[in-house]
Amino acid sequence: MNPRVCFVIPTYNESENITLLLGRLTDLYPDANTLFLVVDDESPDGTGELVRRFSADDKRVHLLQGRKRGLGAAYVRGIMHAMDSLDADVVVQMDADFSHDPADAGRLLARVATDADADMAIGSRYVAGGAVDETWGFRRRQLSLWGNRLARWIAGLKGVRDCTAGFKAIRTTALRETGVAEIRVLGYAFQVALLHRLLHSGARVVEEPIYFRDRERGVTKLGLDSMLEFMYHIWWLRLTSHRTFIKFCVTGTSGVFINLGSFHLLMQLGVHRYLASPIAIELSIISNFLINNYWTFAERNLAGRKRIRGLKFNVVSLLSLALSYGTFLALSLLLPRAAPLWLQGLAIVPAVLVNYFLNSYWTFRDAKRN
Questions:
Q1: Sign, Cα dihedral of 108, 113, 115, 117
Q2: What is the side-by-side strand order in the sheet with 34-40?
Q3: Interacting residues of 113 by C-beta distance below 8 A, sequence separation 6+
Q4: How far is 189 from 287, CA to CA, in rounded Å?
Q5: How far apart are CA 97 and CA 132, in angstroms?
Q6: CA of 278: how far to CAs of 176, 249, 318, 321, 337, in Å?
């Protein structure tokens, strides 16, 4: 049995294109298991009414309307409806203005249907064989090229050539893993936000070359506000993709203060430096574990039982303790005149690195990445 496919097509004032597009799509893909969902933002030009008329003759065509909130919001609404109400196995994203050739959707669908390594197939302008309309001027070509490069470099979308593509076939199993309903990007930056989530959830992405045509009818909706939103969100994605590391750094900083504060206090109480050092290290390790367990890695679906994680953490703690204390001893022998507090601070560095990597990839391993 063929997978249940749903084309999700967002529209706003596309009355000149929508009937032609639906006619072309329904002719190309006559299978009863292929549906067409038009997500219309209450277009004042009557786009929604045209879809209703078309759906009277072809029940595979559906209309979902709502107030205008942007392309991203329309896609979220449409994708969720396709998955939850129409039981789609594969969602196809495409524009309504014929920029994407309806016939090319067949190649995208074939990739996700037959390629075990493809959760998403992108209709790509920037792989071998892909191209953009010859009428594009220098400015538009550079905007598109640099938009993709910035998305790839800043948002960390490595390995994907067309990061801003709006033509995709995606398995709904991968979409559910991304938490697509949580995406709050309203405009064109949605494409980058969705791709970012898919890649970071482990989705496998392939690209198929397409020829991207300029629209012949209607007016483009891409404006300065969309470009500004795009720049804001690719930087925001960069920041959030390193959120766990940032939390770990904050936790580590608190551990440094506890370590050095405890060491200083113990020295003031007359405890010998060689005893004060491991005590201070152990106190900082305990505090770091508690904060990491309940804050840094709280969003992960942690693998294994708590008792096993506790045992793993103790092993890592002992290694960190040995490394930090060994570094302190070595530095004390090499630099006998240096202030002990400075030596204690330097000894923290290798222990912090080992502590992070072992705990992140072993103790607090995300079960989803097994």
A1: positive
A2: 61-65, 34-40, 5-11, 90-93, 168-171, 120-124, 205-209
A3: 3, 90
A4: 39
A5: 15
A6: 47, 21, 10, 7, 20
DSSP alpha helix (H) spans, the chain: 18-28, 47-57, 71-84, 105-114, 138-154, 172-178, 190-200, 224-241, 243-268, 273-291, 306-334, 340-358
Cβ pair 121, 108 in contact under 8 A: yes
Return the pLDDT at 51. 95
Tokens of 326: 């060994």
d(CA 75, CA 168): 12
Average pLDDT over residues 85-91: 94
Question: Would the pTM count as exceeding 0.90?
Answer: no
Confidence of residue 370 (pLDDT cuts 50, 70, 90): very low
Q: Directed axis angle between helix 105-114 and helix 18-28, to 10°? A: 40
The token pair at 242 is 């390193």
